[in-house]
Amino acid sequence: MKLAGRVAVVTGGAGGLGGAIALGAAEAGAHVAILDVKGVDEAVAHLRSLGFKAAGRVVDVRDGQAVKVAIEALSAELGPIDTLIAAAGGSLGTPRDLDDISEDDLDLVLDVNIKGTFHCARAVLPFMRQAGRGAIVTFSSIGGRSASPVTGVPYAAAKAGLLGLTRRLAKEVGGENIRVNAIAPGLFLTDRLQGMFDALPEADRREVLDSIPLGRMPNIQECVDPVLFLASDESSYITGVVLDVNGGRFMAG
Ligand SMILES: NC(=O)c1ccc[n+]([C@@H]2O[C@H](COP(=O)([O-])OP(=O)(O)OC[C@H]3O[C@@H](n4cnc5c(N)ncnc54)[C@H](O)[C@@H]3O)[C@@H](O)[C@H]2O)c1
Q1: Closest by alpha carbon to 188, among 158, 148, 228, 160?
Q2: How far is the CA of 127 from the centre of ligand 1 (A)?
Q3: pTM strictly above 0.85
Q4: In Å, how far are 58, 107, 249 from 12, measured between CA atoms?
C-alpha cells in the first residue's frame, strides 16, 4: 500500500498504460482521478466495481482552463491531489515519416505531450502545496532518449522536451516537498501499439527486438511498478531524473 492516503490524478488514464497505472495506484491505496478525452466513465466504473474510490472528468489536456476546473472539482470530490501521473500523450495517430507529417500533426503531438503536461502540473500544484507534499511523474519515451525507428520527429522532440520541463519544474518546486520525475518507457505493446508495431517494416521490427539486451518484450506491469516507485515515498530523495524502462535498449551515459 505504498500510495495509501494519496489522491492521484492519472491523465490518459483510460488508455493502455494509463489504465493499468490507474488500477495499480488504486491497488496501492490511492484514491484515483482519471482525466482523458474518452473512455472516462468506463475506466472509473471499472475501478469502482473493484471497490476503489475513483472519479474522472472528460478533459482535453491542451485546454488549460478546462484542466484547472477539472482538477479543482476532483480535489473537492476526492481530497487535495498530491500525485500527478501525466500519461496523456503519444504520437496520437500521426505519421512517422517526415514527408507525411503536416503542421497540424506537429502541433497536436507537441501540444498534447508538452502543453498538456504543463497545464496539468500547474493545476495540481496549489493542491500539492495544500497537502504539504507532492509527486509528479511525466511521460517521456525511449523515442525522446534515442533515435527510435518506431516513432517520428515530432514525438522525439516532444518527449525530449518533456525532460527539460521535468528538470526545470523539479528545481522550482523542490523546496515545497514536491518531486518531479520522468519515466521513459521502451516499447510496451498495449492493444493500440501492437497494431502499430505489426505494421512496421520487418527490418524496423527486427531492429527493435534485436536491440533489447533482456531479449524479450515487457509486460505492462513492468511499466506500472516503476511509475508507482516514482510516485511513492520509495523515491523520496529522487527528483529531476528520468527513469529508463526499456530492457536495456537505450542505456544512458
Ligand atoms: N506504450 C508504449 O510503448 C509507450 C512507450 C513510451 C512512452 N509511452 C507514453 O506513455 C503514455 C501512454 O501511452 P499508451 O501507450 O498508454 O497510449 P494510449 O493511446 O493507449 O493512451 C493515451 C491516452 O491519452 C489520451 N489522450 C490523448 N490525447 C489526449 C488529450 N488531448 N487530453 C487528454 N487525454 C488524451 C487517449 O485518449 C488515451 O486514453 C504516452 O504519453 C506515450 O507517449 C508509451
Answers
A1: 148
A2: 24
A3: yes
A4: 10, 18, 25
Q: What distance in Å separates the CA atoms of residue 92 and residue 105, rounded to the nearest whole number?
A: 9
Averages of pLDDT over runs of 10 residues in the chain (253 residues) are: 97 98 98 98 98 98 98 97 98 96 98 99 98 98 94 97 98 98 96 86 91 95 98 98 98 92
Separation of CA 212 from chain center:
22
Pocket of ligand 1 contains residue 89 by CB under 6 Å: yes
Q: How far is the CA of 168 from the centre of ligand 1 (A)?
A: 23
Q: Which amino acid is at 146?
A: S
Cα(88) to ligand 1 centroid in Å equals 5
Residue among 10, 17, 21 whose CB has most ligand 1 atoms within 8 A, to mutate: 17
User: What is each CA distance from 173 to 169, 179, 220, in whole angstroms?
Assistant: 6, 7, 30
Q: Which residues pair with 244 in a beta bridge?
A: 184
Query: 178 near 125, Cβ under 8 Å?
Result: yes
Domains of the chain (ranges plus CATH)?
A: 7-245 (3.40.50.720)
